[in-house]
Specification:
- The protein is of the alpha+beta class and 68 residues long.
- It has 1 helix and 2 strands.
- Strands 1-2 form a two-stranded antiparallel ribbon.
- The longest helix has 30 residues.
- It is elongated and about 70 Å long.
- It starts with 14 loop residues before the first strand and ends with a helix.
Amino acid sequence: KASCKCYQGQKHSSLYLVISVEGKYQQICLPKVYEDDVRAWVANYQRIQELLEEISQIYLDKIKNRQV
């Protein structure tokens, strides 16, 4: 359409969430209204992963030092 911004050379902007399901990546197109919530969920997920790595390292060190 002549009224569409892509007609005038501007690209459409879309927000996608990429997830791994059984080793395969899937993309989910998200409405802009969900952007803040989904970004917060992703940040929380990443923080949880960091904390799990820290906990794992603590216990690995204990095992190596025979402190279990």
